[in-house]
Specification:
The protein has nine helices and five strands. About 30% of the residues are buried. The protein is of the alpha/beta class and about 220 residues long. The chain is globular. The two termini are about 15 Å apart. It has a five-stranded parallel beta sheet, with helices on both faces.
Length: about 220
């Protein structure tokens, strides 16, 4: 049975970069990145995904998106992952091909947990648990300080904790502090999730990830 894998980690952990290299060396696993999706053949669905992606991740960094209700972001993110799975993940699994994606909902749920709003935390758990769940999780253990260097000059205020601080500051120190807290919350979520979690160094090569995939797929 083909399995659904996700690679998790903080902003700047190297998820997308790792999967872009993995896509170059394997044809047995379907490698999916939300910022560089393959053609599904469904024009209407692709147009919808593109519009959702632009509003969710491709907005102008000057837009104070943290002023919108947390529930708006929760349901927007859930809608994206549900449709993305329907269009790109489920068809590949139906063809008995393993799928690996550069991140699922876990990082977003971890961020929402930092709000300490118990009602929001509970709602996020309900909404995200209703999404298709991965069979295997790969967690990149990239140090927040290294991630800060990678994201220098291109990070968004949200990656520095704007949803908590209501500030637009984008210092390296602020990024590192917020991502450290996010990483701790992410680890806690993954400890409670039933899927096996494989922790890899942030500098893991694509060949190392491919070896893990093959090892778990063909024990």
């Amino acid at each position: 049975m083909a399995e659904f894998w996700v690679v998790e980690g903080i902003d700047g952990a190297g998820k997308s970069h790792l999967l872009s290299r993995l896509a170059d060396i394997t044809c047995e696993t379907v490698v999916l990145r939300k910022d560089d999706r393959p053609e599904s053949g469904n024009r209407w669905a692709e147009e919808r995904l593109a519009a959702m992606h632009r509003l969710t991740w491709g907005y102008d960094h000057a837009e104070p998106v943290w002023h919108y209700p947390s529930r708006y972001w929760l349901h927007t993110l859930a809608a994206w992952y549900e449709l993305f799975h329907h269009v790109h993940v489920a068809p590949a699994l139906a063809e008995h091909r393993p799928v690996i994606v550069d991140g699922w909902f876990f990082k977003h749920q971890a961020r929402m947990a930092l709000s300490k709003d118990e009602d929001m935390v509970s709602l996020a758990a309900q909404v995200f648990s209703a999404l298709p769940q991965p069979d295997q999780v790969v967690k990149l253990s990239t140090p927040p300080g290294l991630a800060a260097v990678r994201r220098s000059g291109s990070s968004k205020p949200s990656e520095h904790g704007a949803f908590l601080t209501d500030q637009t500051a984008t210092s390296e120190r602020g990024f590192t502090t917020y991502q450290t807290r996010t990483n701790q919350a992410l680890d806690e979520l993954l400890r409670r999730h039933p899927a096996p979690v494989h922790t890899l160094d942030g500098s893991t090569s694509s060949k190392g990830l491919l070896s893990l995939l093959r090892e778990e797929t063909n024990p």
